[in-house]
Amino acid sequence: MFNETIPHSVQQFMDKVNELAKDYPKWVNVFNSRFLDTLQNTVKVDEEGTTFVLTGDIPAMWLRDSTAQLRPYLYLANDSDEIKQLIKGLIERHFRMIHLDPYANAFNETDNNAGHQDDHTEMQPIIWERKYEIDSLCYAIQLSYLYYKTTGDTSHFNETFVQGIDDILTVWETEQNHENSPYTFERDTWREEDTLTHDGRGTPVAYTGMTWSGFRPSDDRCIYHYLVPSNMFAVVVLRYLEEIFTELLPDTKRCERVVKLKEEIDCGIQEHAIVKNDQGQDVYAYEVDGLGNYSIMDDANIPSLLSAPYLGYCSEDDPVYQNTRATILSSENPYYYAGTEASGIGSSHTPEDYIWHMAIAMEGLTSSDPVKQKSVLDTLVKTDGGTGVLHEGFHKDDSTQYTREWFSWPNMLFVELMLGYLGFDIEGI
Predict the structure, then answer these.
(1) pLDDT, average across residues 366-395
(2) Which helix (H) or strand (E) holds 118?
(3) For residue 383, with 0-12 CB atoms within 10 Å meaning exposed, 13-18 middle and 19 or more buried, which class applies?
(4) What is the pLDDT of residue 2?
(5) 3-state secondary structure of 15
(6) Calpha distance 267→132 (Å, rounded)
(7) How far does the chain reach from its first CA to its final CA, in angstroms?
(8) What average pLDDT does this structure show over 305-316?
(9) Beta-strand relationship, 106-107 and 282-284
(10) Angle at CA of residue 54, ends 415 and 364, nearest 5°
(11) How far apart are alpha carbons 411 and 413 in whole angstroms?
(12) Helix orientation angle between 134-151 and 81-100, rounded to the nearest 10 degrees
């Protein structure tokens, strides 16, 4: 859509940012290339006006990634009809895909049978992958709400949206009692993180009030299937829906359903997901199963425990969050790596000792301290491996060793952090 011509509003916005950040040329270089890269190389608009967003070097659209990729464009949605339509088109496509299959996490541009069609689950030609992840559904709701709060436009709260919300609520309610779920997933693979155990149903769980997730936002399977950061995100977006079905689309029955689910999930978090770390402090577990098992860790992908204030679940100075933050940014987290180039959180999805750029960015996005934010931005551009762009993971001692040549999500998190440092705000956060 924007391969040849940059909208005037976008150029004006970039010029403004360039002037504000003129003392930080390395930041500006990443901002200028990545802000345009998302528009020029990942976005496609079909003849119906819906928007498809490539994740990068994989030819598919993730509900999660595509939201994060377009979120920084909310800063100029009120100044550009083209950007506004782009975001609305993505919201429409999200909810069409959710209605098609709320258990799928990634989709093809067309019914082309690309992706993991050999997986043992209910695949369709337009589905790239059907790993069920709570956060995929959360992100779609988040974008629709933040777009409304930014622009005041409610036209996207249409029949497609309501139909998709009903599908989401049904899945989340069903997965509070996973034994009643129709969902199973198995993949023929040497990589155990890519398939579920117990005939595709995952490890056993007991009822907690939380809702079950098959996979983490890394696309790796859960060990204990109540994924706490994703349940936190669900609570946040259910608050959004409570507002929508109270003030914008008044619907007493839907609102009661939303509130009941929100309260049950949140109670589950408070009752089952607060555990003790090695120092005897209260912290949030990453995963629990309701049977007494839990993991103290964090993963770089978002939602993460680190991202809880960014998501809107709690404040930055919440005592349990602060304890959790200190714990996951330490050796108690098996995926925290400290090296000569950087320190930060990695993932089971990438090799040991590989730190993720998005986790470093999240340290800045969950801090109100401008000194911390500047330090994070400097670290991000310093660890680009000499490429001028950010990647998935990089080796803690050598950033020229990295995974994924082209990965749009961390670059747009950099943009969001940089814009926040320069004083820009997104409504509704």
Answers:
(1) 95
(2) none
(3) buried
(4) 60
(5) helix
(6) 23
(7) 29
(8) 98
(9) unpaired
(10) 25
(11) 5
(12) 150
Sequence-separated (6 or more) residues with CB below 8 Å from residue 211: 134, 172, 173, 175, 176, 226, 231, 234, 261, 265
Q: What are residue 204's phi and psi, to 5 degrees?
A: -60, 150
* pTM of structure: 0.96
Q: pLDDT tens across 221-263, in order?
A: 999 999 999 999 999 999 999 999 999 999 999 999 999 999 9
Amino acid at 425: D
Which residues, in sequence order, are bridge partners of residue 226?
A: 288
Q: What is the CA radius of gyration of the chain?
A: 20
Inter-residue contact 334 to 297 (CB < 8 Å): yes
Render pLDDT for 328-342 as a digit per residue (tens, 0 to 9).
Answer: 999 999 999 999 999
Residues with Cβ within 8 Å of 134's Cβ and at least 6 positions away in sequence, in order, are: 172, 211, 213, 227, 230, 231, 233, 234
Q: Is there a contact between 320 and 283 (Cβ–Cβ < 8 Å)?
A: yes
Asked if residue 56 has pLDDT above 90, the reply is: no
Q: Tell me the C-alpha distance between 356 and 329, whole Å.
A: 13
Tokens 């005592």 appear where?
319
Query: How does DSSP assign 262-305, residue by residue?
Result: HHHHHHHHHHHSEEE-TTS-EEE-SEE-SSS-EE----SSSS-S
Q: Which of 28-42, 202-216, 345-359, 382-396 has the lowest mean pLDDT?
A: 28-42
Q: Which residues contact 76 (CB under 8 A, 6 or more apart)?
A: 9, 10, 13, 83
Q: Which CATH architecture has domain 8-421?
A: Alpha/alpha barrel (1.50)
Note the pLDDT tens digit of each residue in 80-122.
999 999 999 999 999 999 999 999 999 999 999 999 999 999 9
Averaged pLDDT, 311-324: 98
